[in-house]
């Protein structure tokens, strides 16, 4: 059975006790029981020379250098703080794991970009977008946006395994014969999401030239 010893708890404040300041351990045999019950009081004096008379806190002393187990209430906060830190660490690992910490990540590549709809101007046309997953984790496309309304796709969710590929049919339906451009936006679990693909319908042989002419200062005509 372990013997009890005591320590003085008055080590802080404006007038601390000498036993507390020097971290003395008082054997049970040297402790005078408190009158009327309650905790025994710390002997000695405070720094200013007054009787200490602070409560003594019991501790259990075992054998060896590491045999002391602290039972005092004042040390309980250290145990609680350690447990809280451990829980915060677990929460951090859980939160960061979906972001790629220690996990294989998908990588989306959509081709061709821009996606061109061939055929005579006006009416219905279709084209296929190839979506590749060049990463190591499963690619999940959970939302697809298409604009304007002349362009459309079927299905709202696509799953592609690592190093796999899938075809996504895209449709164009408009009576207009004018050049029509749009966008297809893929929202996925790729870190670079969203991915935007240019859509072009009713193009003519000079479409590329006119695009370059409108954006390049080298091809602009002088007034």
Verbal overview:
The chain has 223 residues and is α+β, with helices and mostly antiparallel strands. It contains three helices and 13 strands. It has two domains: 3-75, no CATH class; 108-203, Immunoglobulin-like (Sandwich). Helix content is 15%, strand content 34%. The strands form three sheets. Strands 6-13-12-8-10 form a five-stranded mixed β-sheet, with no helix packed on it. A four-stranded antiparallel β-sheet has the order 2-1-3-4, with no helix packed on it. Strands 5-7-11-9 form a four-stranded antiparallel β-sheet, with no helix packed on it. Strand 3 and strand 4 (68-69) form a beta hairpin. It is rod-shaped, with a radius of gyration of 38 Å.
Provide a compact summary of the structure.
With 223 residues, this protein is an alpha+beta fold. It is built from three helices and 13 strands; from the N terminus they run E-H-E-E-E-H-E-E-E-E-E-E-E-E-E-H. The chain has helices at residues 18-21, 76-96, 207-215; strands spanning 3-8, 26-27, 56-61, 68-69, 108-111, 115-117, 123-133, 139-147, 151-153, 158-160, 165-174, 180-188, 195-201.
For this entry, give a set of tags.
four-stranded antiparallel beta sheet, 223 residues, alpha+beta, rod-shaped, five-stranded mixed beta sheet, 3 helices, Immunoglobulin-like
Topology:
Elements: E1 3-8, H1 18-21, E2 26-27, E3 56-61, E4 68-69, H2 76-96, E5 108-111, E6 115-117, E7 123-133, E8 139-147, E9 151-153, E10 158-160, E11 165-174, E12 180-188, E13 195-201, H3 207-215
Reported for the largest beta sheet, the result is: 5 strands, mixed
Which CATH class of the largest domain applies here?
Mainly Beta
**How many whole angstroms does the radius of gyration measure?**
38 Å
Order of secondary-structure elements: EHEEEHEEEEEEEEEH
The fraction of residues assigned to DSSP E strands is 25-35%
The CATH architecture of the largest domain comes to Sandwich
- Annotation, overall tally of beta strands: 13
Q: Helicity, in percent?
A: 10-25%
Low-confidence stretches: 63-74
- How many alpha or pi helices? 3
How is the largest sheet built, in terms of strand order?
6-13-12-8-10
Summed up, the domain count is: 2
Outline: rod-shaped
Distance between the termini: 104 Å
Helix-and-strand structural type: alpha+beta
